[in-house]
Amino acid sequence: MLTRTLTISALLSVAAAQINLSASCTKALTTIATNADANACLTPSPLLPILTDSSASVVDPINNWLTSLCAAPSCSNDTIAAIVTNATTGCATDLAAIGYTAESTPAVSALIQQYYPTVRNVVCLKDGNTNCVTQTLTNIQGVLGPLSIQNVLALVAADTNVTLPANISCTNCLKAAYNAVNTEIPGLFTTDTVQNECGASFTDGATPAGISETASTKTAASQTKDSGALMLGVSSATLLMIISSAFAVFA
Ligand SMILES: *[C@@H]1O[C@H](CO)[C@@H](O)[C@H](O)[C@H]1NC(C)=O
Ligand SMILES: *[C@@H]1O[C@H](CO)[C@@H](O)[C@H](O)[C@H]1NC(C)=O
Ligand SMILES: *[C@@H]1O[C@H](CO)[C@@H](O)[C@H](O)[C@H]1NC(C)=O
Ligand SMILES: *[C@@H]1O[C@H](CO)[C@@H](O)[C@H](O)[C@H]1NC(C)=O
Ligand SMILES: *[C@@H]1O[C@H](CO)[C@@H](O)[C@H](O)[C@H]1NC(C)=O
Questions:
Q1: pTM of the predicted model, to two decimals?
Q2: Under 8 Å between Cβ of 181 and 189
Q3: Percentage of the chain with pLDDT > 70?
Q4: pLDDT beneath 50: ranges in the chain
Q5: Hey, is 212 helix, strand or coil?
Q6: In angstroms, what CA-CA distances link 56 with 143, 145, 152, 177?
Q7: Nearest C-alpha to atom 1 of ligand 2 is from which residue?
Q8: CA of 162 relative to ligand 5 center, distance in Å
Q9: Helices and strands (H and E) in the chain: how many
Q10: How many CB atoms lie under 10 A from the CB of residue 217?
């Protein structure tokens, strides 16, 4: 256990140095990454390869991660609040640089608690046996090349406008994701824009053929002892990347 924690800590330090995180922020992320409750519901260990090789595609690690995440129970609101409190407290100076102040923490925690079930349902959609995020990222790789951290950062830095063809942005998977988000957060997408890209049937609310919802409906009970390890910083960043790539399709 100690060895494992040290390894995680070493990996986190390397990752943290690359994006210039403070020591207290790295420490807070390590604490979260080794917290039993956070691990039980976020199951981040399949993402570790992303930390060790920034030139490899993230699609396989993400696929492996979602397979374990969707089978695992969901995080309780208490676990979410503890993660947000620990991260925002430990990373206070880092977050101050982007204008974040501690007063925002309760509101941020409530927002994450509110949208977490929808996000979890969306990232656990499957088309047949293929996870929808995996399918979508694989399609995007067909256009942009391998989605490695290096390549994605280069794309972001270049501020490239990527237009995805309709056979990538209007799949059954993304229609199901659109349905789920539109039900929970009405008005997030402009229907006209979506219909222009994908046709009127995309917004009819019907569940497309072959799509299933695979998220476990159990909620994680609180545990007492710490288990092995992981990397919440990367898992939430990656989650954000997945969600924004899915949503960017409609932007
Ligand atoms: C890293 O953070 C330190 C302290 O905030 C700052 O002085 C330094 O310029 C930063 N380096 C980079 C590469 O952003
Ligand atoms: C939050 O931090 C406390 C104090 O360091 C720690 O005991 C607890 O395990 C952490 N919880 C999470 C979810 O990170
Ligand atoms: C979790 O918190 C959110 C917002 O704070 C609330 O809407 C939701 O009902 C809570 N879920 C449970 C299971 O208590
Ligand atoms: C989308 O269409 C293009 C051009 O017809 C084709 O080369 C590509 O394989 C298609 N992609 C998918 C995911 O169907
Ligand atoms: C990308 O698209 C936005 C909105 O259409 C436009 O304002 C911006 O200049 C474009 N950027 C590039 C690099 O083409």
A1: 0.79
A2: yes
A3: 81
A4: 1-4, 224-251
A5: strand
A6: 17, 11, 11, 27
A7: 86
A8: 10
A9: 14, 3
A10: 7
Q: Which residues line ligand 3 (CB under 6 A)?
A: 77, 110, 113-114
165-180 per-position pLDDT tens digit: 999 999 999 999 999 9
In testing the pocket of ligand 3, which one of 77, 84, 184 has its CB within 8 Å of the most ligand atoms? 77
Q: How many residues does this entry show for the chain?
A: 251
Tell me if residue 107 falls in helix, strand or coil: helix
Q: Which of 156, 161, 162 to mutate to test the pocket of ligand 5 (most atoms within 8 A of CB)?
A: 161
Cβ atoms of residues 76 and 36 within 8 Å: no
Q: Which is nearest to 112 in space by CA: 101, 100, 103, 104?
A: 104
Residue 187 tokens, joined: 């008005």
The per-residue pLDDT for range 73-90, each reduced to its tens digit, is 999 999 999 999 999 999
User: Ligand 2: which atom is nearest the Cα of residue 31?
Assistant: 14
